[in-house]
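To assess whether the prediction recovers the assembly geometry, we first specified each molecular entity separately, as shown.
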Amino acid sequence: MIFEKVAEMLADYKGIDVSTIAPESTFQDLELDSLDVADLVMQIEDALGVNIELDPSVTNMDALVKRIEEAKNA
Amino acid sequence: MRILGTGSALPGLTVDNERLMEFLDTSDEWIRTRTGICSRQIMTDETLLQLAVRASEAALESAGLSAADIDYVLGSTVLADTITPSLACALQGALGVAGAALDINGACAGFVYALDVADAYLSSGKAKKMLVVCAESMSRIADWTDRATCVLFGDGAGAVVVGAGEGFLCSHLTSEGNAAPLNMYPNPGNSPFATVRQPATSLYMDGPEIYKFAVQHSVDDLRLVIEKAGLSPDGIDHYLLHQANRRIVEAVRVRFKQPEEKFPTNIEVRGNTSSASIPILLDELNRAGRLRAGELIAMSAFGAGLTTAACVLRWTGV
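The predicted structure of the complete assembly is given in tokenized form:
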């Protein structure tokens, strides 16, 4: 559920086809730089009402989704 | 408080991204897409005082006043030509102002913080005509071997002359004491008694963290001051944001659902000039005839501290 939501937001943000985004897609694959990731995280925070710390070790969609789930359960 | 005149001054050398590629592992494409910056002005043989004097003289002329009319010089800078005397003192001496002189260090939020200080002084009657000057030599504090930071900054000075009036509608200032994401340490000295010495450093910045902080705070601060002023976002004519990164300006604009014309930028050709960025932009808009009397301007700035400052002012015509 969270992955689908984030993929949809990312597809909209980058203007790309949502079907090209997989859980193992890295930010590099998706051509997201660190400011893109920060922007995406802010949109997720607004949409899901959570607070997510930026972490350079989060480098792909799967890790981002796990971080969001942790924030929701906190 | 109301703004009576604007001025700005830039160093003579323009450094474009290609020039930086001569000694940095970077590219014009990377700098442009990440920040929006194509070129910036960098000090060579100028002193910061010279830039501040030029900006001040331009602001005084714009206001139809002279140094003799000023009774308070308020400077904003992270690092002047001297740690002491202050930039404001040096400027007071150079211009021949008879009055008090004080520097504030509000980092990149310095201009809006300074306007708020000026408003308090003018409202209380402690000053009648103030010269507010933001002058920054970012090239002196950046690490020119660090491609992540030195490409971001430019040098320059922006000034306004302010007097009593009803132009400054409201402000909102914040501070979150946190040195970790944005800092710089001075020469620790050579005291034989010091048991701890923090080595001197160049300016350090955690880009993504500051980006997130800046966008979130700018949106919140602007909403707050616009509401405090009894206005709506659509009712603001010009949004002047600190020119730190074009993507921050764009991110805030999108969240406010406003057209690009309301969010002017000059970071493309100035870089990030810290507290000088908004007054330089204001002067450029004023001289281009883009500001009309009665129009509403919202300003938002954010910087090391971490500090943020936002205000709404009515342009009363210069």
